[in-house]
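Hey, I was hoping to borrow your eyes for a little while. I've dropped the whole record in just underneath, so have a look:

——
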Amino acid sequence: MIIPNKFLKLDYNPTKDILLVEWPNMHNYTLPEVTYIINEVVETVRSYDIKRILTDTRQSKVTVPMEEYAGIINNLALQLATTRLQKFAKLKTADPDRETISSNAAALVVGSITYRSFESMDDAIEWLVEI
């Protein structure tokens, strides 16, 4: 089920209770949209009572300074921790700085949300649905 959104793809599978988020590019000129995007993801998780997210960031480009990017990702993690989300899987990028930022954000919500990153979508889905 595609959830309409003008900035990113939100594809919800109610059978597996997984929200697939294809993360958009992040540039300085898109920062106002990033706040909107984070709010949309969090509100979708809350509205549909989603327990599992799979984010695909492999194709997204990030040109904002890494400090700003870290703030954005930390904010997303902290807001998701206010929902009933249980598992967060992320498909790995080739950028070690972005991977470190994601791991650091996950550390902020340890105990609330379980986080792992994966090379393949199949492995991520398998982990998300295991009990």
